[in-house]
């Protein structure tokens, strides 16, 4: 059983705690732990609520807590109970005498399904009210004040929320039609999600714009007349006491909450139920929507990170990474041997889509990298090399793989320290080809404007010769907000936040924390 990482520090009782990765975490930082969705991580320290310290095989490092779910067995009693119920149902006609009933005349599983259906309906109605309040309470009032807002500003702050409001009203109508008021557990709502699965993709635009909305809003909130104006809008519309940025986060939360609700619904739907197949398909469809939105958002945020990273590399040569790539797939240290000289060199390798860049570490300043070259992955053939004598290089090798160019006589041998690291690299090379193929199929590409802007941002925050940490006011701003949490009858699981957590704490405090005899 999996349980989403919650918002407080986890206390360990000495037992080993594992977490499963929900999203890929690719990093350019030595101190961070990279992983792919589905990887299992041993959680070593979770005293900091946003960044945890974990281990995968021989790698250790920081990783964002919101990217994983803890493995716990908290649901077991309930599962056992349901298993007993099903046995009893199969073997006994007279179920009433078994004491397996929760509500008035409803077996446990049907009662639970009723609860989930009611929760979906009520959160949907609450959400429509949130959207209506934003569109009528804020946008309508802002449009009257042309002296305070331009249409472009409003588009930045509110994104396509009016389009989302129109769609969600249509979606709620569909749900209401399928909702069985007398016997909610008989409702068949799976088809509503399936019918509208492509419509939900409009959230991609909203989620990608959300960081700009927060930046624009925080600028305006420095001016008193805007603070008073937004507060007047809220009071006039009789909205709950949450700031506008809190309201604007609800669509981001909502699109991520659907897979959780549908997973819960599937759990309490009998395979014989007429809704079972639709709910199962709807869960996959909504997971894919969340994945697509999350992936596009991550890719757009990544281009700033990639530009930033490139600007810290000394002696850079040739075109920018962004001219061909938009995703860092894997990175790490390898021993490289190349024809014709074949002398071994320790290099840091960064595998992007379409290309791999390698750098040399500074002997004194280990965080400083010098550009040494790149390889065109579209022209490279990767092969696994058996331990022992390697015929091209005529030397004995261990944990090696070979990159051979299809367009020239370029050949490289790359060796890892351990066999499992070699397997990880082989997986990364096949991931890179898959990513390129997927981008081709979904038509994902960066615009020239996005590339230029990213490089411009990197230059601004990097005066020559002075590397500087990336500031991310949006994320810090986001984490300080009070968010309206949608009311729920079920244990509220943490939403997969699409935003990154705060900057990690320094290793100094981490080490001190490990030595202290007590936890916070």
From TrEMBL:
| Listed name of the protein | Rho guanine nucleotide exchange factor 4
- Keywords for this entry? Cytoplasm, Guanine-nucleotide releasing factor, SH3 domain
Does this entry carry the keyword Cytoplasm? Answer: yes
- Quick check: keyword Transcription in the entry? no
Intracellular or extracellular location(s): Cytoplasm
Domain annotation PH: ranges: 327-434
Q: What's a BP term from Gene Ontology annotated to this protein?
A: intracellular signal transduction
InterPro entries (alphabetical):
DBL_dom_sf, DH_dom, GDS_CDC24_CS, PH-like_dom_sf, PH_domain, SH3-like_dom_sf, SH3_domain, SOS1_NGEF_PH
